[in-house]
Specification:
By secondary structure, the protein is mainly α. It contains ten helices and no strands. The protein is globular and about 60 Å long.
């Protein structure tokens, strides 16, 4: 007689282990420690070197890695460094890559662009053709520091790309429709002028409303290109909360540039088309940053009132 099949009794230790729930990643891609450290390092260097370049230019003297016919160009380079320093410190306090990338990408443009310009024009640098010992040492330190920062930027950005990303971060404060066309015009203007100065400095240097040489034109082109990338990047990001650091850099950079331009105003041909365009574009940076902060503050106040209600 066939015996009924008895249910199999699991032997001790044969039970399947309970499923372990994987930890849920926070929204967004976390900001890597490498990018945060890079931002702090560049901010400190910007304060030191940018402050020296700006102060020396304000006194009417020329200090830089290469000879410049006017103190205005190294002064504006220093102003750009000073203006971005507070925003870089703010980037280091960000928690996600989405909050930092609108400023980190222009930073990468400045570092790689200035290093490439310096390498391509090494014979024109003080280290290449000689000069006062202070200028030669400054030129050597400029080249070595840029090279090290470029390597650090490449490593930190590669590490950032490999960082695991959580769920997509929703956009909380999109740009108002009326702000997008002016931002597009402003960003395209800086981007176009920067590209021209960088690629064809011999031609576009004539459109700079003060005396410049080839290296001056290309260095100014790098900074103009980075400003264009930053403004257009903020437009593409379309979220004021994500672009807080970039918004901080715009008015700070515009104010620092205004101080240098005002102090060296006699050297600028303000009646020319390039002079008027420069004034309008610097004012555009200031207006974009100020209006962005106003909109962010208004949106934050509206959310607080909504939560209270």
């Amino acid at each position: 007689m066939a015996h009924p099949t008895e249910p199999a009794v699991p032997s001790p230790g044969s039970e399947d282990p309970p499923a372990v729930a994987l930890p849920t990643l926070p929204p967004g891609r976390p900001l890597s420690a490498g990018v945060a450290l890079l931002a702090v390092a560049v901010a400190v260097i910007n304060l030191l070197v940018g402050g020296v370049l700006t102060v020396v230019a304000l006194t009417g003297h020329v200090l830089g890695a290469w000879p410049s016919p006017e103190p205005l160009t190294p002064g504006l380079v220093g102003a750009g460094m000073l203006g971005t320093a507070p925003a870089l410190f703010a980037v280091a306090r960000a928690t996600t890559w989405q909050e930092a990338r609108t400023l980190v990408m222009p930073l990468a443009v400045v570092l790689t662009g200035l290093f490439a310009v310096s390498l391509l024009n090494t014979p024109r640098l003080y280290i290449g053709h000689g000069g006062p010992i202070v200028s030669v040492l400054f030129s050597l330190g400029w080249l070595l520091t840029l090279g090290l920062l470029c390597v650090a930027a490449a490593v930190s950005l590669a590490g950032q790309a490999l960082t695991r990303s959580g769920p997509a971060v929703p956009r909380t404060t999109p740009l108002p429709g009326w702000a997008k066309p002016p931002l597009a015009v402003l960003g395209s203007s800086w981007l176009g002028i920067g590209t021209g100065l960088l690629v064809r400095p011999g031609f576009w240097a004539d459109f700079v409303p003060w005396h410049t040489n080839r290296v001056d034109a290309q260095a100014l082109g790098v900074w103009a290109l980075a400003l264009g990338v930053g403004v257009l990047g903020a437009l593409a990001e379309d979220d004021l909360d994500r672009t807080r650091a970039a918004l901080l850099s715009l008015p700070c950079t515009a104010l620092a540039m205004t101080v240098v331009l005002a102090a060296r105003a006699p050297q600028v041909d303000w009646s020319s088309g390039p002079g008027l365009s420069l004034a309008a574009m610097v004012a555009g940076l200031l207006a974009a940053g100020a209006s962005g902060h106003f909109l962010v503050r208004g949106a934050a106040g509206g959310r607080i009132l909504g939560n209270a209600g």
